[in-house]
Amino acid sequence: MARGSTTTRSESDAAESLIGRGARIRGRVHGDGSLRVEGSVEGNIQLAGDLEIEDGATVTGDVEASSLVVSGQLTGDVVSRGPVTIRATAQYAGNVGGSEVILEEGAAFAGRIEAEFDLPAELSERTTGGRGQAPRREPAGR
């Protein structure tokens, strides 16, 4: 901060770390804050905070974070306690689980999405026959 400045950084800004363009990390990355990746990481990432993988960045390894935004390239499985956003510029290969998964049109995605959600009433009535329970299925071959 420059002398005489009256601005202060918020706690969330202070807790954010950066792996800059041109930086290459090999090994496990873990921390209590948030992380923005502009360079390259080869190894698992485990954070208490949020992870952002910028356009042009690459991450190869499993990820656990509070939330995730992927604009670059990610290869590995993701477990998020919050939302996962896969931007149009992203290339993602792996399984993803989060409270909410947003896949923008144009993103390259190969994997499985696991998310808990409630069906809208009009859809749940169709699948349960309006009885509030799943339709009964007969075993194959009968």
Automatic annotation (TrEMBL):
Residues 120-142 are annotated as: Disordered. Pfam families: Bactofilin. Belongs to the bactofilin family. This is Cell shape determination protein CcmA. It comes from Sorangium cellulosum (strain So ce56) (Polyangium cellulosum (strain So ce56)). The lineage of its organism: Bacteria, Pseudomonadati, Myxococcota, Polyangia, Polyangiales.
